[in-house]
Amino acid sequence: MSVLVVGGAGYIGSHTVRRLLEAGEDVVIVDALYTGHKEAVPENCRLYEFDIRDEAALDELFKNEEIDTVIHFGAFSIVGESMKDPLKYYDNNLGGTLSLLKVMTRHRIPRIVFSSTAATYGEPEQIPIHENDKTSPTNPYGETKLAMEKMFHWSNLAGGPNYVALRYFNACGADESAEIGEDHNPETHLIPLILQVPLGTRDKISIFGTDYQTPDGTCIRDYIHVDDLANAHILAMNYLRDGGKSDVFNLGNGTGFSVRQVIDAAEEVVGTAIPREEKERREGDPAKLVASSNKAKEVLGWTPEKTDLPTIISSAWKWHRSHPEGFR
Ligand code: UDP
User: Which residues are catalytic?
Assistant: First the structure.
């Protein structure tokens, strides 16, 4: 039997593929390569290159391969882009998931683990955020992820696959090998943008907002290492294989760091000063997002290990320094 990783050529997908292979799983990948990278796919996986909205191609794949679990990363994920072009997100994220669910149900594939996001919560009512807290997304990206969760929920009740939805907080860092890492175009995430300064491709890092109700005035986020996220997918898959019920879990490290703290830590790691400029707030940014991951710890047995900023940033630095232009 094989595990099908949808979006396995992307950032979190490619790290999960490596952990699956290390765990002795046979891995099949489907990726349209809109944002994923062929170079991130290991040789010992079978890569199908198509868009999962193509139901006929999916149907063919499930006929050819013996899939026992699907892990689904295949979605667009840039908040700002989703504000400008919401229908692109509805079309790809919901259209792809709908087609995947239809074909999985037809082929009686019993389980799926999929990427959800902290963006499903919107502006939090309390910190840390728990899975039962109010979900009220403030952008189309979060809205489509929440709709995906609901699609899985209702189709599961009607006899469709069991599911685990993993709500990631701020994914960051890179594989120890530095062979794979974060490579988005355009890049919008804080840590890769900071590291572009010592790489020489950016003069300074912008700090979006310094008047938040936080100790140093900048936004606080829960940065979670991509390897810890990858491990959670393996645990979630095995939880479902062992008969665990469909459920939703937060994945964060439970500690918040401010934008200034992240830049300071990056200066320590790279050993040079990183010039910064204070800018206006970025639209839609809540002051503080920190997860309670107690449920994932208790139910899945997950413990994030790479939780301190120097470890996270060093791994990202190793990747970016050795691949200044990403996979290109
Ligand atoms: N941020 C920043 N400067 C940048 C990029 C991001 O100050 O050039 C801030 C952003 O406002 C947020 C935090 O860094 O408070 C993390 O942003 P990122 O886009 O990495 O992740 P998000 O929290 O939006 O998922």
Answer: 141
- Whole-number Å distance, alpha carbon 148 to ligand 1 midpoint, is 24
What is the C-alpha separation between 201 and 97, in angstroms, rounded? 37
Residue nearest to atom 14 of ligand 1 (CA): 190
Q: For residue 327, what are the CA distances in angstroms to 91, 94, 185, 279?
A: 27, 28, 11, 30
Encoding tokens for residue 163?
């599911």
20 vs 13: CA distance, rounded Å: 10
Q: Per-residue pLDDT for the chain (328 aa), expressed as one digit of tens each?
A: 999 999 999 999 999 999 999 999 999 999 999 999 999 999 999 999 999 999 999 999 999 999 999 999 999 999 889 999 999 999 999 999 999 999 999 999 999 999 999 999 999 999 999 999 999 999 999 999 999 999 999 999 999 999 999 999 999 999 999 999 999 989 999 999 999 999 999 999 999 999 999 999 999 999 999 999 999 999 999 999 999 999 999 999 999 999 999 999 999 999 999 999 999 999 878 899 999 999 999 999 999 999 999 999 999 999 999 999 999 8
Question: Is the CB of residue 316 less than 8 Å from the CB of residue 172?
Answer: yes
**Best residue among 208, 212, 213 to mutate for probing ligand 1, ranked by most atoms within 8 Å of CB:** 208
Residue identifier of the C-alpha nearest atom 19 of ligand 1: 189
Task: List, in order, residues 6 or more apart from 9 with CB less than 8 Å away.
Answer: 29, 31, 33, 36, 37, 38, 40, 41, 47
Pocket of ligand 1 contains residue 262 by CB under 6 Å: no
Residue among 324, 80, 314 at smallest CA distance from 197: 324
CA 37 – ligand 1 centroid, Å = 23
Pairing label, strands 170-172, 223-225: parallel
Q: Is the CB of 189 under 6 A from ligand 1?
A: yes
| CA nearest ligand 1 atom 25, residue | 170
Segments in 165-258 forming alpha helices (H): 190-199, 226-241
Strands 220-221 and 257-258: antiparallel
